[in-house]
Design a protein that fits this description.
Layout (H helix, E strand, L loop, with lengths): L9 E10 L4 E11 L2 E12 L1 H15 L5 E6 L2 H16 L13 H13 L1 E6 L7 H20 L1
Helix pairs in contact: 1-3
Amino acid sequence: MEKQELQSREISVYVDGCSLGNPGPGGYGVLIKKGGKEIVLKGGEAETTNNRMELMAVIKALSYFKNKSKIVVYGDSEYVIKGATEWLPLWKKKGFKTSEGKPVKNQDLWKELERWLNFHEVRFIKVPAHSGHPENERVDQIAKAEARKWKRNS
C-alpha cells in the first residue's frame, strides 16, 4: 500500500458481524455509503466467533477502498472499536500480548486491520446494538443471513 493523495470526502461505512454459537457458523455485513451510492459487502465462515466476524466486517470495508480515504466506521462492537483505538497500540508494544502476558486473540485479523488503519484515515463511531439505527439494523440482518447460510451449508 503506497502513499497516495487522501480522498477529501468522508465515506460512511456500517459494519456488523455475528456467529450462531460462539464458536459456530458466522457472517458479516457491510454497508458503504459513498457519493449517493450504497454498496453491500457480505461473507462468512463455517466455524468462527462473533469477534472474528466483527473484525472481518471492518477489514472488508477498509480493504474495499484502494485509494487512501477518509472513512467513518459505524459499529456496535466495543471489542473492535476499543481494540482499534485503544488496545492495539498497547498490544504492539507488548509483542501482541495481553496485560496478563497471554497472546492476543485474533492476532491475524488485528494485524491486518492495523495495516488498513495505517493506510486510511479512519474514525470509529459506536452505535448502540439493536437500537433502531436503520443502517446498523440492516447490516445486522445481512450478517445474520450470512451466518444462517453457512449453517445450512455445513
